[in-house]
Amino acid sequence: MALKLTKEYIFKFYLNANHYILINGKKGETHPHTWEFACDIILNNDQFVQFNQIEKAIDTYFEKYQNQVINEFEPFDRLNPTLENMAEYFIRDIRDIVLDQGGILVKMESSETPTRSYILSYAEDEDFLSDLEQGETKSLKNIADRIAEDALGE
Question: N or C: which end of the chain has fewer CB within 10 A?
Fold first, then answer.
């Protein structure tokens, strides 16, 4: 049986912002956090990886929230900006950003403290599995093309 390896990268992003939580209809105290979002990404090509493009695209996404009150942004103006709600909202947009950069988002680990994380994974998602299969097919084609070019002396 052949060993199957996947190549994954983890990119970490930090969001410094404030928020408050509504508990039983009462507004809690506005307080700061440094949230960490660790994105586990598979790159679906065999070309040189330009990490800065992926990092810049996701940093740009988080930029509007930096040093702001999260509750002032949709959907958090009506949805409690808990760690879980923020992660579930952000992961959809980050998945699209990663796809645009030629990668596949496997999972995202979100933390508001060093001791507690919330993990969302696409590992069982049909779209993820399809994207992964297409990426593998593309990689195999690239390898076959290089072998053919080498054999023909191109």
Answer: N
